[in-house]
Amino acid sequence: MSMRGANLLTLEGMGREAILDVLDTAASFFDVNQRTVKKVPALKGRVVASLFFEESTRTRLSFETAAKRLGADVVSLAVASSSVKKGESLRDTISTIDALGLDAVVLRHRSSGAAVQVSRYVPHVRVINAGDGQHQHPTQGLLDVFTVRQILAERHGVVASDSGSSLFQGLRVLIVGDIRHSRVARSDIAAYSALGAEVRVAAPGTLLPTALDGWPVTVANNFEEALAWADVVGLLRLQHERGSGSFVPSLSEFTSTFGLTMERVALLKPEAIVMHPGPMNRGVEVDSLVADLPQSVITRQVTNGVPVRMAVLYLSVAEKKESL
Amino acid sequence: MNLLIRGGTVVGPDATFRADVLVESGVIVAVGEGLSSPHATVVDATDCWVGPAFVDIHTHLREPGREAAETIETGARAAAVGGFGAMVAMPNTEPALDNVPLVSYVLSQGAKTPLDVAVAGAITVGRKGESLAPLAELAALGVRLFTDDGTGVQNPLVMRRALEYAGPLGIRLAQHCEDEHLANGGVMNEGALSSRLGLAGRSAVAEEIMVQRDIALVRLTGGRVHFLHLSTARSLAMVREARAEGLDVTCEVAPHHFVLSEESCSTFDPQFKVHPPLRPDADRAALAAALATGDIDAVATDHAPHAPELKDMAFDEAPAGMLGLEHVASLTHEALGVNPVALFHLLSRGPARIAQLRASDHRVGLSAHGGVIMVGEDANLVVFDPKETWTVDRATLQSRATNTPYHGRALTGRVRSTIVKGRLVVNEGVLQ
Predict the structure, then answer these.
(1) Residue A304 contacts by C-beta under 8 Å, 6 or more apart in sequence?
(2) Chain B closest CA to A249's CA: distance in Å?
(3) B302 is catalytic
(4) Per-residue pLDDT tens over the stretch B272-304
(5) Does residue A324 surpass a pLDDT of 50?
(6) A133/B198 Cβ within 8 A
(7) Which domains does chain B have, with CATH numbers?
(8) CATH number, domain at A127?
């Protein structure tokens, strides 16, 4: 389903063509970001609200930078630190902000499904999900596949936007860690599998989802073997501040069984791509030194966040039909 | 007021027959074909079923404490248009109905409505699951059903003592079956769908393990348990086996569990959030299929009004529960197909027996419900049109709340008239 003129709530069911449309658009914005003057006036005069009901540094900064580079006016409300407290009606908060006259809302919320609900409350506003609870984080999934395609295209000496999904055919992706509570994992799995990659997951039994029926993944029974198998390793943040720590006997046991330690790094293919959505728990899911390995593309993910979010905003808002 | 209910088909416990019903001074005085009475108000029952008024044994009326969602008065209006002549007010009010003054207050507020409002008392003080509420004092007030509903009694020793204490009092304990440790704060049924949606799951096992536990405790104590809102095929099977063994256990199902399935939660609309949660379609279908088998004693609404802004919160933050009084008869009728005997068993005779409302109780001013349509019986009657089609509109509900999951749904079968203690409370679908 194309996201031109539409909301971006989930990557599930979005489909190959729609994802490629975003990646190709992002590639042209990537070039804009390399110029001295990084602005394009595609959303001049449009109003984008950035509503973060949950703390976030990089996603928020990335979205707001993207909106500003498109020339949009950005209304920013850090709801997590404002007067809006847990238990306030989502509809009331949104209605108040909607009165400002918005074209789009970028929404981060601690509750799964919040973006879907908001899209019902303000049907005339485009809603971009910037992470909802444990459900989806669509732009993270998009920037992850964008980054992988960009790297593989460079290696193969092809133009990424000419390659379609060809570089993902047979690509082996391993996602490791707290799959159960991860919106990034849900979006990544949808994006990689839509593009033709093979996805495996590795986690302690308690950090796998209760039921994986219908998920386009297989569970890796042996983590070490899976590391040697993978072309891409996606690490997830163990959200121990939200109690995920109680799903394992101890953080140190998690690190010793599912952490990417330096010993395990030796098992990786030399050309393997190691990713992490950030912020990292250095010493928990990754060894302190892993971020600085040549295989690590973590800063590249952050860089690519801006053009991918520019593409999402552009396709969603600029292509929005004016309704009467 | 004299009423002549004319032209309908009377629904008995085993069969139906064509008859008019004449009511005088709150009592049925004649049942037969071609009745006439010059001074009686005629209630047209042409093409309709006439049976005992419905009885809801699971109604959250929210008074005292949460009158913004519902009051006893507004709840009674909703019940009346739903065809109910009596209901049992659940004790999870604020504060909980765990003492004589509060129960007396609710009974007195109920007595101001045209309906019979009975009360379920709390099993434990403050519904905290720790020490027993004054069950004997409340039983002396006429309370026949006790429950900590909203939650189950978690500690098996407390439940055992409650069963032992309740036995000689002739009362029945009603259990909300969900082990809170296992339910673990989940917000929808646990399974592939909850995993996909990133919503915390409430396992079916959380319910089934408590059903199993209480069956064992009934076997141990010789006590009586009523299982509230069973939602899984396995729960029903366990209850069926326990009954075959001769244990005194009864059970109810709520309409949403045999009409809706967990798939509704994929919209993240909190109107579909309820405890126990909506289950997979296989469970829904099993419950619907069991309605007419005799394994289910009652359909009970678990009518749970919430102030509108609370259902506009995020799914995991919104309260659980949905309205039921005004649509349950149509929903049950649709699920049963044309089966008037079963309809009146599930909505009137079965629940009246569980709540011991079959006989009148003059201490609390309650008349007899769920009986046979015959001369001398209290005139609690409903006229139900099995063919009328209509559409649910949340704007026209009698309940103070609007949290119905059925808004916009087309229904077949509708309550046309409700008669309580000989008084025409609803006629032609309109409150009188």
Answers:
(1) A26, A30, A143, A146, A147, A150
(2) 18
(3) yes
(4) 999 999 999 999 999 999 999 999 999 999 999
(5) no
(6) yes
(7) 3-49+373-431 (2.30.40.10), 55-354 (3.20.20.140)
(8) 3.40.50.1370
